[in-house]
Design brief:
Blueprint lengths: L5 E6 L5 H9 L3 E6 L4 E3 L4 E3 L2 H8 L4 E2 L7 H10 L3 E5 L7 H4 L5 E6 L11 H7 L4 E8 L9 E8 L6 H25 L31 H10 L6 E5 L2 E11 L10 E5 L4 E6 L3 E10 L5 E2 H7 L17
Helix pairs in contact: 1-6, 5-7
Catalytic activity: L-methionyl-tRNA(fMet) + (6R)-10-formyltetrahydrofolate = N-formyl-L-methionyl-tRNA(fMet) + (6S)-5,6,7,8-tetrahydrofolate + H(+)
GO molecular function, one term: methionyl-tRNA formyltransferase activity
Keywords: Protein biosynthesis, Transferase
Length: 323
């Protein structure tokens, strides 16, 4: 096998961009970049290319955007390209067996968790929501089922108490890029073995739904803070007060407890400026940064002054809505 590999890269989300860049930097020949079709976004619903497509175009790489990678015409195109390896990261479709059997060096996936924990579409968000202190990245030999393939390499990464999905994704993406290159080198040299996943330890990370973003004030302060961190930068944790929605971007659990119904504003703190809210299990948290409906992100204390909140005011229960 030549040192310079012929690679087809499958990826869509921001997590995958460093892996694509690393393949190019390592001198591998990227035959094509396969990514999801452009999706309408924003108020004008204009088609928006994926982060991987944007990176591929910047790197001068050919881009393919099949609606279904299972289509025979797409599979035949892949056969004609004759790759040594398929490399995948945060792509968004399950790869069919006909494609997985194609490359002699293997179909390799870069996954944002320490498998078998957090298989699925949202491993980073779900790990933060669960209050994990450690996660990581795994490279695996892909199977036509969801994140069940043999483990090749793995590297742990601590989750800092203030990490959001945004900050943790960047850390894990950089680890994943390094791990992908190391995996390809190890497979070429025959120094990496395949290790079966322990099904007894498996857990799942389903996609984030609109209801996941809704703050549950009956949960503990730490659980609420974890939810806020997990929903940052998208879609943003959401609550409602005075009949209006507000996104919660930053918060911190407090040691002091208050005797008040959960969701009740109980105080305003000066350092750092924040709105103290009672939560479940006799806990409390300070809201630090919020974004009112049709407004910009702002200091929570300034927002509270602007809408004239006072101790005793209470956040209302919120039902999920589409979008």
């Amino acid at each position: 096998m030549p040192e310079k590999l012929r690679v087809i890269f499958f990826g869509t989300a921001e997590f995958a961009v460093p892996s694509l860049e690393a393949l190019v930097s390592a001198g591998h020949e990227v035959l094509a970049v396969v990514t999801q079709p452009d999706k309408p976004k924003g108020r004008g619903l204009h088609p928006m290319p994926s982060p991987v497509k944007q990176a591929a175009l910047r790197l001068g790489l050919p881009v393919m955007q099949p609606r279904r990678v299972r289509s025979e015409s797409f599979i035949e195109t892949m056969r004609q390209l004759a790759p040594d390896v398929l490399a995948l990261a945060a792509f968004g479709q399950i790869i069919p067996e006909a494609l997985l059997r194609l490359p002699p060096l293997g179909p390799i996936n870069v996954h944002g968790s320490l498998l078998p924990k957090y298989r699925g579409a949202a491993p980073i968000q779900r790990a933060i929501m669960a209050g994990e202190s450690v996660t990581g990245v795994t490279t695996m030999w892909m199977e036509p089922t969801l994140d069940t393939g043999d483990i090749l390499l793995a590297e742990a990464c601590p989750i800092d108490p203030e990490d959001t999905t945004g900050t943790l994704t960047k850390k894990l993406a950089d680890i994943g890029a390094r791990l992908l290159i190391a995996t390809l080198e190890g497979l070429q040299q025959g120094t990496i073995g395949r290790r079966k996943q322990n099904e007894a330890e498996a857990s799942y990370a389903p996609p984030i739904k609109p209801e996941d973003a809704i703050v549950r004030w009956h949960e503990s302060a730490q659980a609420i803070v974890n939810r806020i961190r997990a929903m940052n930068p998208t879609p943003g944790a959401v609550a409602s007060i005075q009949g209006k929605r507000v996104k919660l971007w930053r918060a911190a659990p407090l040691e002091q407890s208050y005797e008040a119904p959960h969701g009740t504003i109980v105080a305003f703190q000066k350092s750092p400026p924040g709105v103290v809210v009672a939560a479940g299990d006799d806990t409390a948290l300070a809201l630090l940064e919020v974004q009112p409906e049709s407004g910009r992100r702002m200091d929570a204390a300034a927002w509270a002054r602007g809408v004239r909140l006072k101790p005793g005011d209470r956040f209302e229960p919120l039902e999920p809505i589409a979008g």
